[in-house]
Amino acid sequence: MRATIRFVWTALVFALATWLAPWPAVAAVSALLLLLMPRAFSPVMLASAAAAAWAGILGWTWLYAPLGTLAAEVGGIFHVPGGVLMALSVAIAFGLAWGGAEVALVVRARDARRQTTAGPRKAPATTALGR
Length: 131
Prior knowledge:
Elements: H1 2-20, H2 24-36, H3 43-64, H4 67-78, H5 82-117
Helix pairs in contact: 1-2, 1-3, 2-3, 2-5, 3-5, 4-5
């Protein structure tokens, strides 16, 4: 139950971020969430929540706006059905969130490695003259 609530909350965060700052926000939010709460999130969970958010946005738009018409027109430009474009949009959100999470994992690993290798500093060695 707790994981479901976290997933829904995360999807809502992705939806809000997408509304405020469209697609670049997905990777940034994913990276921030993983950096701030690493035990609560995984790349797969974040990517799935982002895809669910975009699917929800597309579904809401389909109900209240002529999304089907737009999808058909854009699909005609690319010579693919409109449904393929919708699925591709959701897949893009998944990939963006996964990429942001993976970048955050690399940043965390580098930070952890830097902290373990940087032991206490030694005082500089003195010479026979006492300098």
